[in-house]
Amino acid sequence: MQTKPYPRVLVVGSGNFGTCLACHLARSGHTVTLWSRDAAVVEGINLHHRNPSYLASILLPPTLKATLDLEEAIAEAEVIVLSIPTQAMRSVLLPLQGKIREAQLLVSASKGIEIGTHYLVSDIVREILGEEIASKMVVLSGPSFAIEVAQNLPTAVTVASTDLSRAQWAQRVFHSPQFRAYTSKDPVGLEVAGALKNVIAIATGACMGFGLQENSRAALITRGLAEMTRVGMAMGADPITFGGLGGVGDLFLTCSSNKSRNFTVGFHLGQGKTLEEALKLAGSLAEGVTTTRAAIELGNKLGVRMAITSATYQVLFEAKPVGEALSQLITRDASDERE
């Protein structure tokens, strides 16, 4: 068990969230290295204490270092934080087979479902790194816009693992007065919620861009939560997880702010933009777009009804007008709220 107060931490991925977590951890006193594939990012962080590609306005702690050498950084780290797009997770992890040790704390801060396999990040880790590593992995999720974490504004997240001692270890690493970390024993629920909330955010953004108002937003958030919970329960998750920070907390945040990339993509779609135009206007990766494709396949596999996800898929990939997708949703047969 990790007992040192300031472990050596490696954050794998230099996007918005990886950068903000590295900033937070370095600010908390840990020895932090940030891995990036981009030499310009590594140079910008090491020489100027800024990530030129993500959160460029944030001056990073001078103790934060960046590297291009992932294998060397893995060997030196006590804590490894994965913060890379889910669709890229496999390509990053494959060269690391046999190089991540059970004694290291592995934390996933990535959100999504892999296209084709329908795997969560924990499933990808299990297949590539083995059951011993996957069973001790911690999932970190919650309502946490990267820019606000980087600005040291109050944030609360959940860290979950089936091995509670690992969740508590992650809690000690991440917790600070401005970044509260609560433990959970339901990583699957946290992963499902973290992935699917991005799909609901696209749908909500599309409705708002189309001209609907707050009643509609509230309905979509609530019914979206029910949809997420059904999928989670079908995968063995605890429904209580979906009422927590990583469930309704993250869902509400992502569906209620133009800081959300997924909401922003949906908003532009609602205004009549094409998906290509919407992604360009959003300015950075919206994980919910690829997750929508994988989520539809997963729902069909599980036999779970996903009306909002299905409508979102049709808008994204079948060029269905947002108005038609909305009409399809609101004209569905009436049913019991618990269904």
CATH H-tier superfamily of the largest domain = NAD(P)-binding Rossmann-like Domain
State the end-to-end distance: 43 Å
Q: Write down the oligomeric state.
A: single chain
Number of domains: 2
Broad structural category: alpha/beta
Q: Helical segment tally? A: 16
What is the beta-strand fraction? 5-15%
Q: Strands across the major sheet, in which order? A: 3-2-1-4-5-6-7-8
Rg result: 19 Å
Unreliable stretches covering 5 or more consecutive residues: none
SSE ordering: EHEHEHEHEHHEHEHEHHHHHHHH
What does this protein structure show overall?
- With 339 residues, the protein is of the alpha/beta class.
- The protein folds into two domains: 8-185, 3-Layer(aba) Sandwich (Rossmann fold); 194-330, N-(1-d-carboxylethyl)-l-norvaline Dehydrogenase, domain 2, CATH 1.10.1040.
- Helix content is 52%, strand content 11%.
- The chain is built from 16 helices and eight strands.
- The protein has an eight-stranded mixed β-sheet with strand order 3-2-1-4-5-6-7-8, sandwiched between helices.
- α9 runs antiparallel to α10 (214-234), α12 packs across α13 and α14 crosses α15.
- The longest helix is centred in the middle third of the chain and has 24 residues, at 187-210.
